[in-house]
Amino acid sequence: MAYKFIDNYREKGARKKLVEHLKSRGIADSRVLQAIGKVPRHFFFDETFWLQAYKDIAFPIGDGQTISQPYTVAYQSELLHVTPGEKVLEIGTGSGYQTCILLELGAEVFTIERQVNLYHRTIQVLPYMGYKPHFFCGDGSKGIPEHAPYDKIIVTAGAPFVPEVMLQQLKIGGQVVIPVGDEKEQKMVTIIRVGENDFDRIELDTFRFVPLVGDQAW
Ligand code: SAM
């Protein structure tokens, strides 16, 4: 496949500016900022739109889906506190950009996408860029029980509720970050499994995601 991946001073400069912008919006985790400074986000865009890649906006990636806004990716990544070697389940691979950030943070990533076209694109593009998560195609609203338990679970689509099956796939001490709400807006929710049947839940800022569609979702 003929991908045209060029990362020159123009894109590198735009990426540095994006990192400064995210800092000014309150992202403070230096490892997250470093990862955003490293992953060439324009590789997920058609060449015509390369400079759009470094604006703090979500952008269409086909099949009615979007690549998440950089601020949202940074916000969710910061909340997750990924440490090297952790097993992370990502629900909603989409473009694969968030996947690359998690890999840069040193996670072993299990990522699942329900849209077949997007799945086929990411299984080609990410390894070509040197990123190697475990890819799955299907309904991630039920998690991936075969590979559980996970240290962290990140959901990159808006859910109507937190699926219980997902919580059961966390290690004790593990954490899920998931946007929960209606079709219009969702609160970022973070839940830590503090014991076999004990969970600490915190609701944070409001975002707008595409819907999580599936058995334990919309
Ligand atoms: N982090 C991704 C990115 O930056 O490209 C986010 C992509 S988009 C906001 C959310 C993705 O979740 C979409 O690609 C959508 O198809 C996917 N999705 C929705 N419901 C899903 C489900 N039940 N299982 C797996 N993926 C799902």
UniProtKB/TrEMBL annotation:
Active-site residues (renumbered): S68
This protein's UniProt keywords: Cytoplasm, Methyltransferase, S-adenosyl-L-methionine, Transferase
Catalytic activity: [protein]-L-isoaspartate + S-adenosyl-L-methionine = [protein]-L-isoaspartate alpha-methyl ester + S-adenosyl-L-homocysteine
Record CDD domains: AdoMet_MTases
Single GO MF annotation: protein-L-isoaspartate (D-aspartate) O-methyltransferase activity
Localization: Cytoplasm
EC numbers on record: 2.1.1.77
UniProt xrefs under InterPro entries: PCMT (IPR000682), SAM-dependent_MTases_sf (IPR029063)
Principal subcellular localisation of the protein: cytoplasm
A GO CC term assigned to this protein in UniProt: cytoplasm
Bilayer-spanning residue ranges: none
A biological process term (GO) from this entry: methylation
Top-level taxon of origin: Bacteria
Family: Belongs to the methyltransferase superfamily. L-isoaspartyl/D-aspartyl protein methyltransferase family.
Job of this protein: Catalyzes the methyl esterification of L-isoaspartyl residues in peptides and proteins that result from spontaneous decomposition of normal L-aspartyl and L-asparaginyl residues. It plays a role in the repair and/or degradation of damaged proteins.
Family matches, as HAMAP family: PIMT
Protein name: Protein-L-isoaspartate O-methyltransferase
Encoding gene (name): pcm
